[in-house]
Design brief:
It is built from nine helices and ten strands. It is elongated and about 85 Å long. The protein has about 300 residues and is an alpha/beta fold. β8 and β9 form a beta hairpin. Helices cover about 30% and strands about 20% of the residues. It folds into two domains: about 180 residues, Pyruvate-ferredoxin oxidoreductase, PFOR, domain III (Pyruvate-ferredoxin Oxidoreductase, domain 3); about 80 residues, Alpha-Beta Plaits (2-Layer Sandwich), CATH 3.30.70.20.
Length: about 300
Amino acid sequence: MMISVCLLGRGGQGIKSAAHILGTAAFLGGHYVQDQPLYGAERRGGPVTAFIRLSDEPILDRGPVTDPLLMVVADDSLLEDQLKDFNVSEDTVLFVNTSKNVDHIRSRYGISNQLVLSDLSLMAEEVLESPVVSAAVAGATSRLLNQDFGDLKQAVMLELRNIGLDQKEAEKNLLLARKAYDSVMPVKLPEAKKEAREPAFVELVYHGPEASTCSITSPGNSQTRRVGDWARLKPLIDYDECTKCRICFVYCPDSAITIGTDDYPHVNYDACKGCDICYTECPVKAISLVRRDEKA
C-alpha cells in the first residue's frame, strides 16, 4: 500500500525541511519514498506545499499528490482559502496545527473529516523560542504514520546537520520533535484508491526554424534603427563550405540570421551588429569577416 501525505504551511515555518525529515525517516525504516516541495517565489508567509509518498514497493507515480490520505496543515489560517485547492476527500485524515478545539474547527470551516489537532506552534515557542515548526510537524506526522522514533531521530539530526545548526540547537529541535511525536497517536488511514489512467499522447506539430526568431510582425510606433550600421565588419557565409548545421542561427544574439527555404542560413545585414559570434562558433569555418563596405 502506498501512503500519500500532503504538508501545507507557510514560508518560514520549515515545511520543506519537515518533508525531508519525514522522507528520510521513511527511507531509514526500509520504505521507498518520494518527497518534493512546491512553492512560488520564496517569501515569508506565502503558502508552501510538500508532497510525500511512502510505499513498500517502487513508486512509479510522479508529480504532486492529488489524493492525499493524510493532509497536514501547519497553520490553521490556511483552512480558509488554501485547503480547497487540494482534492481532500471525506476519507482523508486531517491534522491541523492549532490552538483551537475540534468543535471550533468543524463549525468554523465546515470540516467533517477525521480530525487530529495539536498546538505545534506553542511547543516551538516554548522549546525553540521561534515560530519554526519543521521538527514539530515532522514529529507529529511521523507518529500519525506510526513510524519508529529512532528513525525519526536520525532523520532530524541528518537534516539539521545539513542546514548547519550547532549541537545545542539540534538538541532543542530533537526535543521539539519528541514532544510533537508524543502529542498525537497513530491513525488508521483509508485504503489508497487506484485511479484508472489512460495514456496521454501529445502530438507535436513541426514548426520551421523561423518560429524561434525575434521577428517583429507589427511595426508599432517606434523609430526604425538600422543597427547594421554599427558594425565595422560583417560575416560572409561560404555556402560551398556550409553544412547547414544552424549553429550560427542558434547563437546569433540579435536574430540577424534566419534559415531560408533552401535550408541555408542567411544574414540580415540591416540587423547584424557585427558581434562576430557566428564567425567564432562556426565549426567548419564557413564564415569569414569582411569589411562592411564589401558586397555580400
